[in-house]
Design brief:
- The complex is a heterodimer of chains A (363) and B (166).
- Chain A is of the alpha+beta class and 363 residues long.
- Chain A folds into two domains: 65 residues; 265 residues, no CATH class.
- Chain A has 15 helices and eleven strands.
- In chain A, a hairpin with a 4-residue loop joins strand 5 and strand 6.
- The longest helix of chain A has 28 residues.
- Chain B is mainly α and 166 residues long.
- Chain B has two domains: 64 residues; 93 residues.
- Chain B has a three-stranded antiparallel β-sheet with strand order 1-3-2.
- In chain B, a hairpin with a 2-residue loop joins strand 2 and strand 3.
- In chain B, helix 1 packs across helix 3.
- The longest helix of chain B has 45 residues.
- The chains are: A alpha+beta (363), B mainly alpha (166).
- Chains A and B meet through helix 1, helix 2 and helix 3 of A and helix 4 and helix 5 of B.
Chain lengths: 363, 166
């Protein structure tokens, strides 16, 4: 899980090296500003003293550093990126908290027990290695597909269980405050707003080894998990002609961003969420296909997304619900900026599909 | 008491903080009751005709020169205060901007890497943010003060230009 080979624990020598480095850096910066007359001598002195005070405080409190929460500054002084960075650091730090690790593995074990499918838990070796192996279309035998799908379903199920369990444990409240809490603190108080949910769900996923990112907009944030979706890909025609045997279908694993923003849909008497849209054999997709063909005579999602202000949309409650569901998927993909939580990197995130893009491709 | 002496006493009285250049006729009559009604009215009439700034309006005796004098003094006092608050505000804003830069240096230091660094980053962020918030609070207070003082100047200008003075 480390984004470097370094230790997870706080070491005094690391802090001392860091303090020496930062002290020199700040001294140089303040002297430069003073020489340029960008700051007065009074400001130089005040900030220099503050700098020493912070360094002393860090050394004094070393070992008992356990931030519970972070106060975000006035919104006009905090950019979206800075806010995202704080949330990312909170997710990283929280994912090492004992209570978060314990809860994460309890959710995983409970899910496995309920499903009767014990599994060596190793998303990095299965989910993400699988993504690397099946980045290009490849052939798979029926039995192999069955095993892979079962495994994928299990990992996806655990990721989904994390979101569901969290929403039962923590009461969602719209907080007017500017505080974002560590996951342990949110678990302790039992309530939180979207920022706290982002940290909590993100850190539980991360503690379980899932790859995580966050979606941040001007007034809302949510966590998202990166999961593989196994898709059927048509084999190039020339290869079919050359081989003239077997199926013309290959499989490919597509890394997909699944947002945990409570987006749900009731269709044909079943409640579906974003996680249920993964993989070519998904029952949600089948229900969608059937519904689209019955209603529109076509499975093209574009047809539904393009019927704004149409009478059909106003008249049929089910169509309206489906339309709203797809619009929300579109909104979470286009209306937010996604930031990777290490070890996810920007290029890695750039290779992932959003659910709506995936659906538009496969439908 | 001569009307000249009465005027001298009145001028001293109207410069006092509680009168600021004007006094109600009712109060005037009570203060100078020893003069007798006839003599007081005669002196008042003389003052208004004297061209030395005396007017009677809305039941008040006003001296527009005294009002201007007091208001101009008050304006100068407030303008000096505004200058002082602006200087303080400038320093505070400079301090806030510098702290923000220093905070970034603390958080973006290349030695802060690896999983352990998150806690330190959050800790450092929290300490610096607390400092910054204190300064920003002071900036806000000074801005409010400045707004209040500028409103006062406007009020004084209005009073100076007001019809009862002209």
């Amino acid at each position: 899980m480390d984004d470097s080979a370094e230790s997870n624990s706080l070491r005094e020598e690391d802090i001392v090296r860091y303090l020496v480095s930062v002290k020199n850096e700040v001294s140089n910066y303040l002297e430069k500003r003073l020489k340029e007359r960008a700051i007065s001598l009074e400001v130089y002195e005040r900030v220099r003293l503050l700098n020493e005070e912070v360094a002393k405080k860090l050394l004094k409190d070393l070992g008992k550093i356990k931030p519970n929460e972070v106060h975000i500054l006035e919104p006009d002084r905090v950019s979206v990126w800075e806010f995202a960075r704080i949330v990312i650091e909170l997710i990283k730090a929280s994912s090492h908290e004992r209570e978060v690790i314990d809860l994460a593995h309890k959710i995983r074990k409970d899910y496995s027990l309920a499903r009767g499918f014990p599994l060596d838990w190793s998303p990095e070796n299965f989910c993400y290695n699988f993504l690397a192996v099946f980045r290009e279309p490849a052939k798979m035998g029926d039995s192999e597909i069955e095993v892979v799908l079962r495994m994928l379903e299990h990992y996806t199920g655990v990721a989904k269980a994390v979101e569901e369990k969290t929403r039962t444990l923590i009461k969602y409240v719209e907080e007017p405050d500017d505080i974002v809490r560590m996951a342990g603190r949110t678990l302790e108080i039992g309530l939180g707003d979207c920022d706290d949910f982002t940290v909590l769900i993100g850190s539980i996923w991360r503690a379980l080894g899932f790859l995580v990112c966050i979606g941040v907009g001007p007034s809302h944030a949510f966590p998202a998990v990166i999961l593989p979706s196994l898709e059927m890909v048509e084999e190039p025609e020339e290869e079919v002609n050359q081989e003239k045997t077997g199926s013309s279908v290959r499989f490919m694993a597509i890394p997909t961003i699944v947002p945990a923003d409570g987006i749900k849909l009731n269709l044909s008497g079943k409640a579906f969420s974003c996680y249920d849209l993964l993989n070519f054999n998904s029952s949600f997709r089948r229900s969608l296909y059937t519904f689209m063909i019955q209603t529109f005579g076509s499975k093209k999602i574009e047809n539904l997304l393009g019927i704004e202000n149409n009478e059909k949309l106003e008249g049929d409650k089910k169509i309206k619900e489906l339309y709203n569901f797809l619009r929300r998927l579109q909104h979470v993909s286009e209306g937010y900026t996604y930031y990777p939580v290490p070890p996810v990197s920007d290029p890695m995130l750039g290779q992932c599909r959003h659910l709506i893009t995936l659906l538009l491709e496969v439908f | 008491m001569s009307c000249r002496y009465f005027e001298k006493m009145l001028i001293d009285l109207l410069y006092k903080q509680e009168h600021l250049g004007q006094i109600s006729l009712l109060k005037l009559r009570s203060i100078f009751s020893h003069m007798g009604q006839g003599e007081l009215e005669k002196c008042l009439e003389e003052l208004v005709k004297s061209g030395r700034g005396w007017v009677v309006r809305n039941g008040h005796l006003i001296n527009k020169f005294i009002v201007r004098d007091i208001m101009n003094d008050e304006k100068r006092r407030i303008e000096n205060k505004i200058k002082k608050v602006e200087e303080e505000l400038n320093i505070l804003r400079q301090e806030a901007d510098t702290i923000e830069e220093v905070r970034q240096l603390w958080i973006e230091n290349p030695l802060l890497k690896g999983e352990w660094s998150s806690k330190v980053k959050l800790f450092v962020y929290a300490i610096w943010s607390e400092k910054l918030n204190t300064i920003l609070g002071k900036v806000k207070d000074r801005e409010e003060e400045l707004k209040h003082l500028r409103n006062l100047i406007e009020e004084i200008n209005t009073r100076i230009e007001d019809s009862f003075v002209e």
